[in-house]
Design goal:
By secondary structure, the chain is mostly helical. It contains 21 helices and no strands. Helix 4 runs parallel beside helix 7. The chain starts with a helix and ends in a 12-residue tail after the last helix. 46% of the residues are buried. Keywords: Endoplasmic reticulum, Glycosyltransferase, Membrane, Signal, Transferase, Transmembrane, Transmembrane helix.
Length: 517
Amino acid sequence: MEKWSLMTITVLLALTVRWAVSLGSYSGAGKPPMYGDYEAQRHWQEITYNLPIRQWYFNTSDNNLLYWGLDYPPLTAYHSFVCAYIAKLINPDWVALHTSRGYESQPHKLFMRATVFVADLLVYIPAVILYCFSLKETSAKKKASTCALCILLYPGLILIDHGHFQYPLSLGLALWAVLCLCHDWDLLGSVAFCLALNYKQMELYHSLPFFCYLLGKCFKKGLKGKGLVLLAKLAGTVLLSFAACWLPFGTDVEQIMQVLRRLFPIDRGLFEACMFSSPTHCPDKVANIWCSLSVLIKIKNVISPRTQLKLSFAVTFLSLLPACIKLTVQPSLRGFKFALVSCALSFFLFSFQVHEKSILLVSVPVCLVINEIPFMATWFLLVSTFSLLPLLLKDELLLPYAVTTPAFLAVCLASFSILEKTSAEDLQLKAFSLSLKGYVSWFKSFPRIVRSLFLLSLALMGVLSVLSAAVPPPQRLPDLFPVAVAVVSCLHFLLFLLYFNVVILWDSKNRGQKKIS
C-alpha cells in the first residue's frame, strides 16, 4: 500500500507541473500565416475529419500540403480523426474545413491541452510507473517512486509536450514495448513498437536495438529449434501489425507511395526542411554534427542533396554499428537499454533532416537507465533540455524552462546524490578503466575531474541561457546565441556518444540479467 501512496504523490506532482506549464504559450500562438505545431495538430484534425482517407496525404484544393500537410504515419492521422470527432461534438467551428485555419480561443486551447493530458495519462505515465516497479535494482519501494519522479519531471519532454505542443504517444508506446521485453513478452513488445513506429517515423531511431536484441535472442535459442519458431512469430507479428495500421491505404499502391513520400522527403536535402522562413526551423539551431559543421562549412552549398543523403547514411551506419553488433552477439536487457540510447544519439547527431525536438528520442531511453548511471543520465537530460532553448524562447517558454530545469536537477541531487556517484564503477567504466591501467595515470583523479567538468558544463549552460534570454545579439550576428547553444550542445552529445559506446563495448558481465535460453 505504501508504494502506491508514494507513487500517487509522484504522479500528482508530475501532473501539477504539466498543468502549470500548459497554462503558458504554445508553438506559433498568434503568429500567422503558419502559426506553429499547435495549429499543425489542429489542422490535421480538420483534414482527417472532413476529407476521405484517400485525400489525407495528397495535395488538393481542400488539402494544401504546403500548409501543415500530414507528414506522419497513419496512426497519427487516426489519432487526429478521433480528436476531431470529439472536437466536432463540442464546437464544430474548431474543425470546420477552410474556415477553422488558425483558429485560436481559450476553450479550444483547453481542449487541445486536455488531449495531451489524456495521452499522457493513458499511455506515457502508466508505462513509466510500471517500468520503475519492474526494475530489479529498485527493490526498495521508495526507490521506485523516486526513479519515476525523476523520469516524469524531465523538463525537456514536459516543455515540448505541454508547452510547445506535441503528443507523447510514440514515446509512450515505445516505453510499453521496452516494458514488454523486460518481461519476456516479445510478441506484445513487437506490437507496441510497431504502433510507435506507425505513429511517428522518427521511432526508426530505436528500431535497430529492438531488431538486434530480438534477433540475438533468436540466435541464442538456436535457429534450428526454439529460435526459428520465435523468429517466425516475430516476423508474423510485425507484418500483421503493419498491415492493420496501413489497411485503409493498402488498396492502392499510389496511396502507399504518396504516404511514404510524405514521410521521407529526401529531396529536401540534409537539413530539416525550411518550408517557410521561420527561426525555429533554421538548420543552424539543431545540435547535431551537420548543423554545427555548417557554421564553418556551408555543406548545403558544397554537396548535392543526393550526396548529402549518402554521406549521412554512411556516417550514421558506421557510428551505430559497434553497439548493434555487440547487442546481437550478446543480447541482454541492460545492453538493449544502453543501445537504445547510443543508436538514437547516433541518429540524432549524424542522420538526415533532424529536428531539434528529436533529442527527446534519445532522452527517454536515457531516463530508462537513470537508476544505473544517475550522474551521467542527469547530466545528459540537462544538456538535452538546454539544446531546446532557442525553440523554447520563440514559444515564450523561458519561465517554465527556468523553473523546471533547476527543479529537475534538485530532485536528481536529492534522489540519487549524483555528485557522490562519479567513480569509474558508478559510471559503469570499471572494466574500461582496468584496461587502461598503467597507460593513463590521471584515472585516479577521475571522479574529481568528472565533477569539475559537470559543474563547468552547468555554468556554461547557465550563462548561455541568460545571454540568450536577456542580451540582444550583435546586428552582424543575429543567430549568435542560438548557434552557440547548438554547438555547445553538440560537443556534449559527441562526448556522451563516446561514453555510452564505451559502456556498451566494455560491458562483459551483463549484471543482473536473466540468462536467455
